[in-house]
Fold this protein.
Amino acid sequence: MTTNPAASAPIDSSAVNRTKLSRRLFWTTGLVAVPIAAIVAIGAPSGPADPVQPLIVQSQDRVGSLDGTSSLRVATFNIHAGVGRDGIRDLGRTAAALTDLDVAALQEVRNPLLGFKGPQVSDVANKLGMAWLFVPAEKRWWRNDYGNGLLTRVPLTDCVRIPLPTPSRQRFRAALLTNFSYQGRTVHVVAVHIDKDMEQNTHDIQLRTVFDLFLSLQEPAILLGDLNEFGTHPEIVRLLGTAGVHNALADIPRPTVKSDPIDWIITRGFRTVRAEWRPTPSSDHPVACAELQLSERIARDSSPATHTASLRP
């Protein structure tokens, strides 16, 4: 009778244990990796912000009525999420570029997932002692992630987020429509960041939508924003060719950064006292600023109003 050497060989228990451990690790890794992959696949892509979520002005104790004889100082600034041309993120530099203003519209505002400090506009507002509003356009990870912001020293009313048409569904944009009282008149403000995406005419459709909204408002009205477009675009030519519409930045030299500007302050029922492009290292955009007063026609029609002390610095 012959024996099988392999059958009589001792079993290597350590090898068996290693095999069992490898199998456990394989199945454990799979059980962990699959749900993580599913979470990432669902949560990472951008989606539109909730269009009916209320917009609430924060730090309203910092606002007050404008002085009856003062002008109105407004600005628009694409903050590039606080990242300057040197690649450094510093919201202190962002705030330093926005001093001495009554209302400022901000674009490319992030709501960092891991910062736990709230939207970036809140940090900037705290440094300036201003009230603020975050206007989300996109959601990621089941929370508002990206959008516009507004800084203000005057009380705002009727803050409404208006989702803009996005046929390509690649990025999402929203406009803010709000108003405030100034020298006895209700000033309507549209603040916006237009998408530069040309697919399915997204860019042109958004421009047309915002301009039609702006023209529908009763004077006085202000349009603030990064329109991602030059003055030669047919929609901008159409808007500026409309009676009573004024480019508040028309009569000043072009900025040194983005010398063919895409940031705009457009008004109806105002005259421009002065305007400037503020250069800043805090973004790849300059700050567009304008000091406005009601036009003679609008001022003549304004009813008297009671004004409290100004909170300007």
